[in-house]
Amino acid sequence: MTPEELSSAVTACLKDAIDAGEFSIELPSEVRVERPRNRDHGDWATNIALQLSKQAGMNPRQFAGILSSRLEKIDGVAKVDIAGPGFLNITLDAGAAGELAKAIVEAGPAYGRSDALSGTRINLEFVSANPTGPIHLGGTRWAAVGDALARVFESQGAEVTREYYFNDHGAQIDRFARSLLASAKGEPAPEDGYAGAYIEDIASRVLAVEPNILELPEAEAQERFRAIGVDLMFGDIKESLHNFGVDFDVYFHEDSLHENGQVEMLLEKLKGSKNLYEKDGAWWLNSTEFGDDKDRVVIKSDGNAAYIAGDIAYIQNKRERGFDLNLYMLGADHHGYVARLKAAAAALGHDPECVEVLIGQMVNLVKDGKPVRMSKRAGTVVTLEDLVDAVGVDAARYTLARFSTDSNIDIDLDLLTKRSNENPVFYVQYAHARTYALARNAEAAGVDDSAFDAALLSHPTEGALLAALGQYPGVVAQASTFREPHRVARHLEVIAGTYHRWYDACRIAPQNGEEVTDVNRTRLWLNTAARQVLANGLDLLGVSAPERM
RNA sequence: GCCCUCGUAGCUCAGGGGAUAGAGCGGUUGCCUCCGGAGCAACAGGCCGUAGGUUCGAAUCCUAUCGAGGGCACCA
Length: 549
Fold this sequence. Notes:
The protein is of the alpha/beta class and about 550 residues long. It has helices at about 5-20, 50-55, 60-70, 95-105, 135-155, 170-185, 195-210, 220-245, 255-260, 260-270, 305-320, 335-345, 385-390, 395-400, 415-420, 425-445, 460-480, 485-505, 520-540, and strands spanning about 45, 75-85, 85-90, 120-125, 160-165, 250-255, 275-280, 280-285, 295-300, 325-330, 355-360, 365, 370, 410. The strands form four sheets. Strands 6-5-4-10-11 form a five-stranded parallel beta sheet, sandwiched between helices. The structure holds one RNA strand of 76 nucleotides.
């Protein structure tokens, strides 16, 4: 029995008790059963008596008493104890927990998936770095987390579009183009420009494409460097993301919003919105209503559209493409965008809820325990490729995805490389590989899956492993609702831990000449179940699940 | 000045109202005639930044405060 099944059975008991008039309360939307830390407290525990007794006008233990007599009648429940202030501790029948092993094996890759988001179209925008250089550590974090989040949504039935928004004009790109030009001429990088080996590399590749480029007038040459350089740079970015296992469905070019005067037309229409007003010759968006500290100019007093006009048009564009939910995954240096994006959605007449901004904290580079500022100028930028070269794709993706995006993370490349074998990803992958080793040995010893008797999975480590496997679907669901894929990684570490301990305590293959029994066969099922859940979870993180290491 | 995030073991971090606060790394000590030792077991290590509040119950929610990081253009 899974915690979800138990939880809905408990809910049904509550409903019956209410219908029978045993107490009068509102049925809670969700009843949570938790795995108690202390095994003396049963297989699963719930605190609903503590939560609901006040509403029912009785003390918690009294409430728990009424409920427990009903819980005891649930199929698969062996015993219900009332403990402490009013916890209900539930112990399952010997076979009830073990049945899960078979259920998982039969569900296969579908175990942990749900249809909670089926029919929901989600646009998830992440990375979105302008092509002025390679993806650095910050962008790499969003690539790892964003893609994992997309996979989590997909596992819940959503249709996800991974989107990358960029522009190739403006001050940043100008600096990039001037830096390329300078490099091609053999001059030092401009004062406000970019330095680094990649500039020389791109510059020489531009020269290879267009050998006569330096004979053009300065302005024309710079424009050619911009156009060709951006293409080359973007090619490199896409390639390194692809090698990282992240492929975007849409690379959205900001300029496409401005074609055919689309933005102007949209702004004209918006002048009728109550969220847009005229003051001092400019048009303002009332973003303060959505938490901004000041309203933002949309149309400058010179009549030109401000940058934010593009954001507004972009939201409209996304809405027209039919997305139910538009997620923006941005770094903490963009947190000021939240209010204006919400305000923009409202101004367009959309529910601001259709725009959701996920703010993630920054990645810091650390060397010898001291922070190092990443600077494109100083050439101290650590890129996605540097990280992958140092530790490999699996360790890189896992490391970045296992932290909450609410916390800053420090990365010490030297330390990471040195300790790469101790990265938790290997702990999890090793558990997965071990399931294959055990299966190979089991087969050699004549153990097959011809029998399954759930009641034989009676060892404490088997209970713990089954419980961890049973919690997996709930963890994935939480990762989806909270937009926190790191929960999946953390739970895989728990599963790997319970698996290793089970391995240590229980054998699948019989030892020196003992007969094969149903215990061996049933354990083989549990082994396969553990492998399946580890593989499903690693897949959500975009990390490989090796058969051997 | 205002806004956002964080402050938990020596280090890096989990913990979204529950029972005795966890993991990895680092430290000490055990475990390979036995399915993979990239593993397991044990020990040491904590006024959960501080002070109030809400609650039967707070690391978790609220307020204040200190500290760290990030943001607050008719730039893009």
